[in-house]
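cron nightly-structures :: item 1 of 1
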Amino acid sequence: LPERAKLLMGQPSSFSFREAMDGGWFVFIRTGGEDGIGPTLASVMLDDLWNAVRSRGEGHSPVHVLIDEFTQLCGPHTVEMLNGGRKFDVRLFLLMQSVRQLKHLGAAGR
């Protein structure tokens, strides 16, 4: 894990996805590069976000989520958010270098 991610893992968090969603914030999850948090911590954050989205239910303001280097995070939680997010007005922006990267995901990339 990057050093910044290690520091975050052991700290109590005052950040609330629920407050961010209710406040109309854009959620930007950046996994790669020097400033990224890495795929492990990003996956945990994405799980927390998805749980917060489902807990508040339908009929709320849209949730805008930008996921940088999406192909590093494509897993069950991401697929579930892609399939069921519209019901909760989740708007996903999936960022990657090339659409060809989806081929490396196998069946999940189809």
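cron nightly-structures :: done
The chain has a mean pLDDT of 77.
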